[in-house]
Structures are given as structure tokens and as C-alpha cells.
Amino acid sequence: MDLDTLLSYEWGVMAPEFIILGVATLLSLLDLFMGKEKDRKLLAWIGIVGIVAAIGFTVALIGNDVTSILFDTFRLDSFSIAFKLILLVGAGLVLLLAMSYEPTDEIQYRGEFYYLFLTALLGAMMMTSSSDLITLFVGLELLSISSYVLAGIRKRNKLSNESAMKYVINGTISTAIFLFGVSYVYGLTGTTNLREIFAAFTNINDGQLIYLMAIALFMIVVGLSFKIAAAPFHMWAPDVYQGAPTPVTAFLSVVSKTAGFVIILRIIVTMFIQAPSGDEEAPYLLFHLQDYLAFLAGATMIIGNTIALRQRNIKRLMAYSSIAHAGYLLVAFVTYSYFMMDAIWFYLVAYLFMNLGFFAILQVITQKSGSEDISQFAGLYKRSPVTAVALGVFILSLAGIPGTAGFIGKLKIFIGAFMTSPSHYVLASVMIATTVVSYFYYFGILTQMFFRPAADDSKIKLPVNVLVVIVIAVLGTIGFGIFPGVAFEFIQQFGNFGDFLK
Hints:
The chain is mainly α. 73% of the residues lie in helices and 1% in strands.
């Protein structure tokens, strides 16, 4: 590739990625030359400034025509912009949390946390704009490897070491399965470009090749199910959530999960949406296997919510809650309704605010008490009424109570289950039943907060940066719950989400 060709590309479409890459590089250099006694919170502030700048450039790209550079390996479209905003906002809030995180066992390498965090964010952002299997995989591994290190960054903590080990082992297995499926795709089409694969799959008519295509889809779904912690490939999540530092747990539950659904939509929808099945009644492979995907979604909702009932450790409880929410999101994907993309995007936005707000308060309480048992929330209303009310808002949203963003997100997915023919009555029924089950463990936390006496009557003081996260999360949770049209009007500015098929 000559210099003229390089200069001919519209590099401005990669401005958000370049900013995050530049800031991560700057932080690594600053950390190298800063004395050991220097406070590393400066690095966090620089990281936050970089993320805000990246958000600004991303917003500026709204309304641009679909742009493809680097031989269609990087693609800017409405899909990538919409999901980058979720990733960047979520990452910024997690960095604010990380600034005040002070575990009992000191993190020896605090500086590394900030730029490893940004490299993980960069990998997720690359996945949203990748139009090629190779760049998708590079982004996925950049996110995964950084996350493995972040999960075990408390190297003197046994739980943290265990979580990192389990995360690495399960992540490696899922990557191997995913690549096995991708190898079949490449063998069938001879290309790694998503749009070329889409065109090649539509022209396959041979029964044996369709069978291989189904195997490829199965392996890819299994590999990616590990990434989003969908049952029965979810067993790593509770241990990793419990052992990882709280800001990392928040990152995995929001940013990493968003990235998981990004790659599912980018790969499966783009490549397999019109892949033939050889069956006249269900002519497309993705719809032919819809019952199996529905079983995956149903099992994820049932297992996540039922096992959460028996959890005493609040981070393990939130892990199973996260698994259940992955099941709700899979319902939107399985039904493939007209507004599937809108429903998934809005739900992830709602989940971002309610989950990060919950983890912000969780971090303060567990640091003060030194315990992650659910009993530490006892008497919270008397110790800090404002904090208790804010946490109550997040819990009600997670449970899907009207007036919150979580309710609108679930309602949108639920309605989508009836927008297709035939309608998915069983899946919608499972969604309702498991949501009711979730009330027991969510309201169990509310019972502790408002009706149980506190073992410690000392007041809870929220650090300023944590307070900022909570305020933003409350405004987002209530605001999008009462005025969801604001979010959906914002989505419409992007035009057609389906332009990633163009």
C-alpha cells in the first residue's frame, strides 16, 4: 500500500479509536516515568478527558454517510455509532468509580489498571466498526486479554487470582470454539469480509454445504454464548464477578456484555440473515434454527433468576442477575422483530445506568464494611436515606417496575415477541415468569434496606466521583423510564440500523 492510498482514506471516521489509543499510550508512558509515591488518580482524570473527547467526536459523526476504509475492514455506520456511545459512556462512568476504589489488599500496579481498561475499551469499539472477521477477532481478543488481566489485578487476593484463572480458561475455550466455526465459514466462502460472506451464503444450495453452514453457525453461537454468559455457558461469571475488583465487575457487566451483543449482531445477523436452510417451510437457516436459539434464551432467563434466589454474596447475585438480563436480550435477538436493533440498543442503555448505579453504591458499602454479604445493606435507609432511595430506583429498574428505563426495555422486547409470525408465546411467557421470580431476590435487597435493623449505625459518605455516577445513573434510569421517546427519537437520528447490511 503506497502513501497516496493511505492518505486517500477518510481517517476521520476512526477519530474516536485514535483518541482512546493515544490516551492509553500516553497513560502507559506517564505511569512508567511517574514516581512510585505519586497518586495515580491523575491517570484516571486523563482517561476520562480522553473518553469525553471520544464521545464528542462520535456524536459529531452522527448523520455521516456509511463510510468504509481499509478495504472494507473498518466501517462507520449507524450501528457502530450507536453502540460506541454506550461503550464510551459506560467506560467513563466505570473510570469514575475506579478512582475511589480502595480495596483492603492494596493494588500494587494501579497505573496499569487505567490503560489496560482503555485498551479493553478500544477492542470493544473496534468490534462495533469491524466489517471483517479478522478485525472482529482482533478487537475481541484485545478486549478479552485486557479483561483477563484486570480481573486478576489484585494479585495478592486469592479470589482475584481464581477469577482470573477461570476467566482465562473459559475465555480460551470459547475463543477456540468460535474460531472453529469461523474456519468453516472461511472454508465455505473463501473470504473473511462480512458482506462478501453474506453474498456467498445466499448462493449456497447444496445440502451438504448447508449442513456445514449450520455447524459453523452452531459453533459461533456456542463460542459467543460464553462471552455474554448465556446458559449453559455461564458458569465462569459468578466466580469472576465475585473475585474481580468492583470497577472491573461493573465493566464486565455493562461494557463487555454490550460488546458481546455487538459481535453477535455483527456476525450472525450480517452473515446468516439470508443463508438458506434447504427447507421450504423455513427457507432461511437462522429462522430454521430459531427454536434452538429460543431454548438458549429461555434457559438463560430461568437459570439466571432461579439460582440468584439462593445467593448471599451480592456480587454473585448480580452475576446471576446479569445472566438473566442476557436472556432477556436474547429474546429480542431470537424473535427478530422489526425493531430488534432498537430494542437491544435501548435495553443496553437502560442496563448501563441501572447496573452502574447499583455497583457504585455497592462499592461504597462493601469497602466500608469489608464484606459482600447481602446483610450489609440492612438499615441503609436509616444510615443514608438518599443513598437508599437511589439504590431502590436501580433495583426497581432491574426488576422491570413501571416508571423506570428497565421496564420500558423489557416491554419493548416483550412486544417484539408478538410482532413476528408465528408469535413467540412460550418465550414471552418464560420472560414474564422469570421476571416475577426476580422480584424475590431484588425485593429481598429492598427488605434489608428499609425493614432490617443496621448492625452499624454509622453514616455513609459518598465520594464526589461516586456521587456523580449515582446522579447520572438515577437521571438516566428515571428519565428514560418516563420519557423513553427521547431515546427512541435519538436512535432515529441514525437513520436505518440495518445499513450495516448495505
